[in-house]
Amino acid sequence: MPMTGSEPKVTPDLAVAHGLTREEYDRVVDLLGRDPTYAELGLFSALWSEHCSYKSSRVHLRRLPTKGPHVLQGPGENAGVVDVGGGLALAFKIESHNHPSFIEPFQGAATGVGGILRDIFTMGARPIALLDSLRFGPPEDPTTRHLLGGVVAGISHYGNCFGCPTVGGEVGFAPEYARNPLVNVLCLGLVPKGGIYRARADGVGNTFVYVGAKTGRDGIHGATMASEAFDETSAERRPTVQVGDPFTEKLLLEACLEAFRTGAVVGIQDMGAAGLACSLSEMPARAGTGADVDLDRVPQREPGMTPYEILLSESQERMLLVVERGREVEVQRIFHKWELDAVPIGRVTGDGVLRARVRGEVVAEVAVKALTEGAPEYERPRVRPGWLDGERAFDPRTLPEPEDLGSVLLRLMAAPTIASKRRIWRQYDHMVGINTLVLPGSDAAVLRIKGTPRAVAVATDGNARYGYLDPFQGGAMAVAEAARNVVCAGGRPLAVTNCLNFASPERPEIMWQFSETVDGIAAACEALGIPVTGGNVSFYNETLGRPILPTPVIGVVGLLENAERRTTQWFEEDGDVVLLLGEPAGRLGGSEYLQTVHGRLSGPLAPLDLERERAVQSACLAVIEAGVVRSAHDCAEGGLAVALAECCVSGPRQIGATVTLPEGERVTDTLFGEAPSRILITVASADVDRVSRIVREWTVPLHVLGRVGGERLEMRIGARHVSLPVHSLADAFENGLAWALDQPIEARERAPVDGHADRGRAR
Amino acid sequence: MRFGVVIFPGTWSDMDFHHVISQVLHQPVEYVWHRDTDVDRFDCLVLPGGFSYGDYLRAGAVAGRSPIVAALPGFVARGGLVLGSCNGFQILCEAGLLPGTLLRNDCLQFRCQWTHVAVEQTESPFTRGLRRGQVLKMPIAHGEGRYHVDQGLLRQLQERDQIVFRYATEAGEVTHAANPNGSVWNIAGVSNEEGTVVGLMPHPERAAETSVGSTDGLLLFHSVLGSLVENGSVLGR
Fold first, then answer.
1. Contact status, residue A394 vs residue A602, Cβ threshold 8 Å
2. Could you report the per-residue pLDDT of A392-434, keeping only the tens digit for each?
3. Contacts with B53 from chain A: Cβ below 8 Å
């Protein structure tokens, strides 16, 4: 095998420097029957990286349920697809861009949006909405402000310019994310059922056509970088982060969808992580074919790029198409109209080998299955963390109860994780496409499907505190809550996409958390009848040995047969009756109350009964579909008191309520305790009987709490009484995030000023 | 009435306008590619929102020099009507077809939110059916929407009744708080001297159906359709 130019000699040490282990390198040599070329080493190091191969997670992900009556495409493609009726399907997926967003938050987040958009439109779908699930360190940390500002600006830049609305998501804060923020982006798109495209290189003799932006030296080793933990030198990896161009992506979208309409496109794959290397091996591997390509023909941004660089570049806004032989010009004409490159670079072959040539010489020759299915698969050791029992044994009932419950409620309403995220989402165009029927700020976003009476509801959720205290339940609760949010909007949950953010899988305690989380997700998906159609695993989320909390982020999509039945979370009418589906008392273990008031993350979680959860969701949907529900809101972080307060202040009109809450053992459990399977609904007083009849059929407890109206939120619990003006609650809720983010940074943390700036410099 | 919706590379409100014109107003509408200059079959051309050419230079700067925009003065001279919203407004200002310029929002961030605008003049075909002082609820979505003219030009626009919309409260009061981007004199939309070219930062196409929160944007279209009926044809052909 010839070697080109000045490429280094491949040795086991060089392989280790590329992120392969010695054993993995031996396996490469075995599979090839010889030492790899430098370009081949690049192929293996990228495709066998954790990011591309899922080598530590595959064995566990198999336990997730993936089949269901609506599923048209399960895991293994660029995105999952479900049937939404009327000849239409919904493609959707969530993906992480955590590592790049820490190194360079603006571009890291922007290209995260770009990547997931491409995953959706390669399926033939036009993207209709984006949601972002973000996690940062404490708001008072200057690094958090830098990262949050950059990430939000990056999402805003890319999504707004591209023209896909950002309609929801969540933002959470905890010290564990201080040096490892999470940026998970979910995208959904609509596609005619007959027009779904797949990432397959079918048809020997067909042509690989490279389309989109030119290939540059940016982002080389992005996939490998995303498969390592961070240390002090992380900032030096900035060149591994790509620069996004949403304008080119928009052109690429329009050109691809137009090209699909010709019928000449056989298959398509995005060139994201590991670039050409990935598409040239995965597309033929799925189809049982091979590829023979001429790297000289790849459009390049600069001269002198080596085969290694061309194969591994992660330059953005590029796609690889397989086009029916003889129809290349037809497709090229469309891309040229959109002022994009479209260049045939090779052919689909029948021998199962990826053969890359430069000036006629073969520089890489590898069986595609060796790169894909041949990747190692690890069942890594797992150990239940020793600290877990201690954390769970803590009894929050040993803590004193606060005198002034009202001021605690105000504090919780202003807590950064609970407070309104308006100052973030007002920077996102959440209306383009004119499908958004429920804007950000309610439990789930609702988007109409034009030309039909239907709508899609979508929400993301993931409470890492629960995952930390009980990863199984944390996974299950994330599924339950995301589904509950969709139900609160009136949507019948259809399917799940998941983004599993964890620290290093090489640590047995982390691997145990991961495995438990997967089992929890699987159990909840089974119980609620919603399969997983895809997603993403992000490992190595730790910096300087400090792991993030185990953070499964779950996206659930649901369908409303009648868009008119969409429901929002806020109180609507004076005199409406406030009802609680489910049991009133929650627990303080792992709660926002315990975190905010006592600075503790410990205690036992409230149990999750999946049968009860299913019944509560079914009952809620039944009453919504009966057309009698005025509002529905999930009780989540902060418990019943916060949920009630949110109903008062999150809508277009501030409105109070007077409620009596059942007296439990402790007033803090009732007000601020958290538990699954609880939904607050309001109905007109004339409909209360009808609602109780429907709810009774599902054997779900129903409590009449009180009435909507007035300018205060009044809550009675036995002898205790909490009464707050709605405007104070609104003030805390609307400004909480600003108070946390804008408070002056401690003097010692401030950037150098005056004379200090010049310290150490010779003058 | 025949509408044309212009597509520049990077336009994204094209499908939204097309939807409203064809599905809500039931009027004939076609897309027009930015390289096309043969536009005489249309009565009204819409320049929609988006990030034409990525707006990497100034918003609308590149599109303002495109073939279709070069054809607009002739189209208008022959009696055609032009509506530019968001990026379309920026393009019309860049091309000199409307006075003034659009600067970065004073908050230095993109803003997507509902706004209210008060109708300032009712001479244009797009506002003929409206009342002076009438308040319309329409959303904005832009990073560069701060309308700017110097004091001399502002006076001239006032005198010639070229200011079409001003940001206001729901009750119609023009206040500082109602101004979402720092525009001079709360200006949200202006017209040429004849009133046949109108540009505004808000999105009328996003306020054209009850289910999305407002139908006030339709009033601009009803106005232009009504003016046709009233005069036989604005185009006189």
1. yes
2. 999 999 999 999 999 999 999 999 999 999 999 999 999 999 9
3. 247
| Mean pLDDT, residues B168-174 taken together | 97
Strand duo A207-212 + B3-7: pairing = unpaired
Q: Does B51 touch chain A (CB under 8 A)?
A: yes
* Helix, coil or strand: residue A161: helix
Interface-testing mutation among B53, B105, B110, with chain A (most A C-beta atoms within 10 A) = B110
Chain B nearest CA to A429, separation (Å): 5
Q: What is the pLDDT, as a whole number, of residue A752?
A: 37
CB contact under 8 A, B54 and A427: no
Q: How many CB atoms lie within 10 A of CB B139?
A: 26
Q: How far apart are CA A675 and CA A692, in angstroms?
A: 22
Cα B44 from Cα A619, distance rounded (Å): 51
Q: Would you call A428 an interface residue with chain B, using a CB distance cutoff of 8 Å?
A: yes
Torsion of the alpha carbons at A8, A11, A17 and A20, rounded to the nearest 10: 130
Out of A248, A338, A431, the one facing B139 most closely (by C-beta) is A431
Residues of A with active-site annotation: 51, 97
Instruction: Check pLDDT > 60 for residue A761.
Output: no
Q: Which backbone phi and psi does A379 adopt, to 5 degrees?
A: -105, 90
Amino acid at B114: W
**β B81-85/B44-47 pair status:** parallel
CA dihedral A364, A368, A373, A376 (to 10 degrees): 0
Contact A56, A511 (CB under 8 A): yes
Residue A187 Cα distances to A165, A267, A717, angstroms = 10, 21, 43
Residue B236: per-residue pLDDT: 36
**Looking at residue A420, what DSSP letter applies?**
-
Chain B interface includes A562 (CB < 8 A): no
Is the Cβ of B60 closer than 8 Å to some Cβ of chain A?
Answer: no
Q: Which of residues 720-739 of A touch B (CB under 8 A)?
A: none
Inform me whether the pLDDT recorded for A732 exceeds 80. Answer: yes
Residues A99-124: tens digit of each pLDDT:
999 999 999 999 999 999 999 999 99
* Min Cα–Cα distance to chain B from A706, Å: 29
ipTM value for the complex: 0.95
Any CB–CB contact under 8 A between A429 and chain B? Answer: yes
CB pairs < 8 Å spanning A and B = 79
Average pLDDT, chain A: 93
Q: Please tell me the predicted confidence (pLDDT) of residue A759.
A: 32
Q: Say yes or no for a CB contact (<8 Å) between B23 and A450.
A: yes
Q: What is the CATH number of domain B3-232?
A: 3.40.50.880
Side chain identity at residue B150, one-letter code: D
* B15/A433 CB distance under 8 A: yes
**Nearest CB to A251; choose among B9, B19, B209:** B9
Compute the distance between CA of residue A261 and CA of residue A450 in angstroms, rounded to an integer: 20
Residue with the two structure tokens 């699954």: A676
At residue B207, the pLDDT reads 98
